[in-house]
Design brief:
Layout (H helix, E strand, L loop, with lengths): L9 H26 L5 H27 L1 H4 L4
Length: about 80
């Protein structure tokens, strides 16, 4: 019986998530900042952070893991 070991690449995962997070956070900032011009930065962050986390947890991360499964889990 031949077994091929699979290792998870955290570096590849981090780079893919970064590639998805950068345009996502930029888009959120473009939408939120004009609506919150008079707000303090901590108030803006209070709106942006939960939105960003929710999108990452239920959208971005599962999407990256599904679309790039072979890239993230290369056989040794």
């Amino acid at each position: 019986m031949t077994s091929t070991a699979v290792r998870y690449s955290r570096l590849r995962f981090a780079l893919l998530v970064l590639a998805g997070v950068y345009p996502l956070i930029t888009a959120i900032l473009y939408v939120v900042f004009p609506l919150t011009e008079q707000w303090e930065i901590w108030q803006r962050t209070l709106v942006i952070a939960p939105l960003m986390v929710a999108i990452m947890i239920w959208g971005l991360i599962p999407g990256v893991q599904k679309m790039f499964r072979r890239f993230l889990n290369p056989a040794q």
